[in-house]
Amino acid sequence: DVKVTQSSRYLVKRTGEKVFLECVQDMDHENMFWYRQDPGLGLRLIYFSYDVKMKEKGDIPEGYSVSREKKERFSLILESASTNQTSMYLCASSPPAGGTQYFGPGTRLTVL
Amino acid sequence: GEDVEQSLFLSVREGDSSVINCTYTDSSSTYLYWYKQEPGAGLQLLTYIFSNMDMKQDQRLTVLLNKKDKHLSLRIADTQTGDSAIYFCAERGDSTLTFGKGTMLLVSP
């Protein structure tokens, strides 16, 4: 079974802090994704990566950056957290060419 | 651009069938997916259908695809309280999936 893990289930941070969300997959997938999920807005793609050190902006990249130094790990970085980044963050991975995506359990981030 | 639309809410009684509908816009989509999200959890892949198929059945789940109308549906037979969740429809593009906003299914005893 594909396993995607995220470093924290719940996280509380203060405005202005730098925040790292980590995601690890064990299926040797090329593609990895970061989404945020908000009530009434569904899932919105922040960034994705199709290879090590490669990244592509999604629909809402502003205020976020990403890092992919190893194939199995994809990090989402909030350089200076703001209250409007309070959300559920979901990581996913997939084989190449847009195959089925497999999701982690999510990190609920609260920024005070 | 690509867009996926779903109704937001469906309420059924235990034992009834549930039908969740979805429309999409990208006629070149090769695969269409249904995911389930239970409260506080990530998305779990339920099933998918290849675009050259009309129907796919998997135990209590039946997926119907009308490619002409770009309409996808998920039927859950004998719906149980454990089926209460949010269901997302998604279409596959070049490298990414486009998701609908999700349909909340509430199953009452």
Describe what you observe in this structure.
The complex is a heterodimer of chains A (112) and B (109). Chain A is mostly beta strands and 112 residues long. Chain A is built from no helices and eleven strands. Chain A has strands at 4-6, 10-13, 19-25, 31-38, 42-49, 56-57, 65-70, 73-78, 87-94, 102-103, 107-111. In chain A, the strands form two sheets. In chain A, strands 2, 4, 5, 6, 9, 10 and 11 form a seven-stranded mixed beta sheet that branches. The radius of gyration of chain A is 13 Å and the shape is globular. The relative contact order of chain A is 0.34. In chain B, strands 2, 4, 5, 9, 10 and 11 form a six-stranded mixed beta sheet that branches. Chain B has a five-stranded antiparallel beta sheet with strand order 1-3-8-7-6, with no helix packed on it. Chain B has strands spanning 4-6, 9-13, 18-24, 31-37, 43-50, 55-58, 61-66, 71-76, 85-92, 97-99, 103-108. In chain B, 0% of the residues lie in helices and 58% in strands. Chain B has 109 residues and is mainly beta. Chain B is built from no helices and eleven strands. In chain B, strand 7 (61-66) and strand 8 (71-76) form a beta hairpin. Chains A and B meet through strand 5 and strand 10 of A and strand 4 and strand 5 of B.
